């Protein structure tokens, strides 16, 4: 529930952001440590006769290596005019990128996997107990495996589809890895059902 609520609240907040032109005032790197750096790009923009400033690169917490942060900072030279995302209800809340946190989606994927596996386990035992013969058992196990795979894959597609639909490119490597694991993992129930029926020669 926490991950779902976080996704909903995050989307509700970011979907209302608007784009506005801003001028780059300063571009540098902030932070310390091996992977604790971020681009600090100071922007100036006007909204409803008010003048605002922001030095946020992303709407979410971004941490990266110093070289990567420096590469991004170098792309924004003072005097450049860029588009910035900002909250019209709180104009001082602005950033260059409108990013969605990935962690709530990963937690939701874990929930989908546990739900599918729980369904699979319960229905598998039920199929074994209720089967009246090898043919019936084979058919029941295949149907249970297919149903669990459909549940897993459709849930994962819903969660990751929302992320990829709303998250601006480029997507982080962890998102592609999660998509690959979710896609392949969803085939486990069906693959096990096929293996069991073949191995037992039902």
Description:
- This protein folds into 2 domains: 18-95; 103-199.
- The longest helix is centred in the C-terminal third of the chain and has 33 residues, at 134-166.
- Helix 1 crosses helix 3.
- The chain has a 5-stranded antiparallel β-sheet.
- It has 6 helices and 5 strands.
- It has helices spanning 2-14, 66-74, 103-130, 134-166, 173-185, 188-199; strands spanning 18-31, 37-47, 50-54, 81-87, 90-95.
- It is α+β, with helices and mostly antiparallel strands and 202 residues long.
- Helices cover 53% and strands 21% of the residues.
- The radius of gyration is 24 Å and the shape is elongated.
Enumerate the strands of the largest sheet in spatial order, edge to edge or round the barrel. Answer: 3-2-1-4-5
The secondary structure category is: alpha+beta
Task: Calculate the mean pLDDT score and round it.
Answer: 83
Number of helices: 6
Summarize the biggest pleated sheet.
Answer: 5 strands, antiparallel
Distance from N terminus to C terminus (CA atoms, Å) equals 41 Å
> What series of H and E elements makes up the topology?
HEEEHEEHHHH
Radius of gyration: 24 Å
Tally of domains: 2
Helix content: 40-55%
Beta content:
15-25%
Number of strands: 5
Q: Low-confidence parts lasting 5 or more residues at pLDDT below 50?
A: none
Shape: elongated
